[in-house]
Amino acid sequence: MLIRILYIDQPHIVAAVVCSLIVAGLLKGTIGVGMPVIALPLLSLFIDVKSVAMLLSMPLIFSNLPQALEGGKTARSLMQLTPVGIGMIPGLFLGVRILLAIDANTARIVAGLVLIGVGGITLFAPKLALPPRLVLPAGIAFGFFGGILGGLAAMAGPLVFIFMLAKGLRGKAFTKEASLYLVISSALLAILLAASREFSWLDLLISTAAMLPVGLGMYAGQHMRDRIAPETFRKLVLIAVIAAGAELLRHGLFS
User: How far, CA to CA in Å, does 43 sit from each of 40, 75, 113, 114, 183?
Assistant: First the structure.
């Protein structure tokens, strides 16, 4: 499917996709997270939601890999992710099945609802504190629904990040575990999509090449980080994401 975009779509569509990836990388470089949250509504203006999920899969792996491996103790972090992983795997399978089964307009509606929901939850996220006895069941539940969102819209992170904060992760420990989760969930997403009838392993090469504009945006964003208040920037982005989700919803319902 991504191969057809390169060969059939007009050059200005390809250029718009590249620019959207740069902007998404800019967000990642500036605040460290949130690449798919801004990439999905931008890319959905030019290509279908299924192609967006495939296109973002490899950049999500490569952009989070350095943080996932930073500081060592990766095996320990993997063990900490076990409850989330137990829920994430079936959730991701279900999300991908739903994504591949629905038509383009329904996919826009679903993506719009996901964006509004994720943007709203992230913007107004409750400050939860989980007692140790609830970490296992809550991890499985958050992982399952995070997996569904990952399969539907390449956004496996936001719900799981709330869980990680609720169990007390902060600073580098949070960044490492969150990045490791994104690497694993994105790798599984890439495999599931590439193994489907709608995509091929060649599409993985295009998704891998998409890391170039994302990396360019990340480089620029890292240099802008000290000039922008991260929390203000994050809130503005999330408000824009909710608005973009509403526009996708409108387009899906009335086109």
Answer: 5, 35, 16, 15, 21
Q: How far apart are CA 230 and CA 246, in angstroms?
A: 24
Q: Pull the structure tokens for residue 14.
A: 């390809």
**Three-state secondary structure readout of 13-68:** HHHHHHHHHHHHHHHHHHHCCCHHHHHHHHHCCCCCHHHHHHHHHHHHHHHHHHHH
Torsions phi, psi for 172 (to 5 deg): -65, -30
Q: Identify each DSSP E strand in the chain by its residue range.
A: none
Question: Whole-angstrom Cα distance, residue 90 to residue 110?
Answer: 19
Segment 12-48, tens digit of pLDDT: 888 999 999 999 998 888 777 778 888 988 898 888 8
- Tokens at 192, concatenated: 């599931």
Q: Is 72 left (phi over 0), alpha (psi -120 to 50) or beta?
A: left
Is 139:84 a contact under the CB 8 Å cutoff?
yes
Closest by CA to 58, choosing from 213, 234, 242, is 213
H/E run at residue 140: helix 135-153
Ramachandran assignment for 128, one of left (phi > 0), alpha (psi -120 to 50 degrees), beta (any other): beta
How far is C-alpha 236 from the chain's CA centre? 18
Q: 170 in helix, strand or coil?
A: coil
Q: The pTM is what? A: 0.87
Give the C-alpha separation, 233 to 53, whole Å. 25
